[in-house]
Amino acid sequence: MRKVKEVIVVEGRYDKNTLSQVVDAVILETSGFGIFNDAAKRRLLKTMAEQRGLIVLTDSDGAGFLIRNHIRGCVDPKLVKHAYIPDICGKERRKAKTSKEGKLGVEGMRPEVLLDALERAGATFDDSPNDARPERITKADLYARGLSGGTGSAEKRRQLLKRLDLPERMSADAMLDVLNALMDREAFYHLEV
Q1: What is the pTM of this model?
Q2: What are the distances in angstroms from CA 87 to CA 65, 108, 112?
Q3: Which helix (H) or strand (E) holds 188?
Q4: What single DSSP character describes residue 136?
Q5: Quick one: pLDDT at residue 20?
Q6: How far is CA 127 from CA 113, 170, 183, in A?
Q7: Residue-wise pLDDT tens digits, 79-117
Q8: Are 155 and 26 contacting, i.e. CB atoms less than 8 angstroms apart?
Q9: How far apart, in whole angstroms, are the C-alpha atoms of residue 77 and residue 188?
Q10: How far apart are the C-alpha atoms of 4 and 127, rounded to whole Å?
Q11: d(CA 16, CA 54)
């Protein structure tokens, strides 16, 4: 599995699940057209673009291009790379019928096709050994700081997310991904919680 420095933006959870089996990266979902009405998520994309850069990887149908163009208008284009999957006719396994345009989406692509799309977009692959990377924040760290698994942890997490200008409905797992993209473990332990 190859590690990608940039944050990858996909449309939905099935795209995220498929991609997470191919690359080690922070992967954020737009919730489809939900991005159009979610100011907090747009701020998160801007923040992540400034910290790590973004790669937008949407389906090759009309909806995917609408979402891609919306992100283009929200985030500094110099901080965004665009990865494109080919037009392949077919149907995803989990769906009863083909999509409106009859094309496979990100979730239906083979791993080598997704890697090729990321490479062509100019993704920054970090293939250095794990011990050369900064120490990552873990679920145990969230628990130790009272942000997960304990009494009042949801409220503490919500307050921290608000202070960091991140979406307040973010789950502990999603917050963990974003925190690891924004800081190392030492900086996390210096945060006021």
Answers
A1: 0.82
A2: 13, 11, 15
A3: helix 185-190
A4: P
A5: 95
A6: 19, 29, 20
A7: 999 999 998 888 888 877 777 888 899 999 999 999 999
A8: no
A9: 29
A10: 9
A11: 15
Q: Are 108 and 92 in contact (CB under 8 A)?
A: yes
How far is the CA of 120 from the CAs of 81, 85, 129, 160, in angstroms? 10, 10, 24, 37
d(CA 43, CA 166): 7
User: 90 near 106, Cβ under 8 Å?
Assistant: no
Q: Which domains are present in the chain?
A: 2-126 (3.40.1360.10), 134-190 (no CATH)
d(CA 161, CA 166): 5
34 neighbors 70 (Cβ within 8 angstroms): no
DSSP H or E run through 10: strand 7-10
Handedness of CA 64, 68, 71, 73 (dihedral sign): negative
Residue 26 CB burial class (10 angstroms; 0-12, 13-18, ≥19):
buried
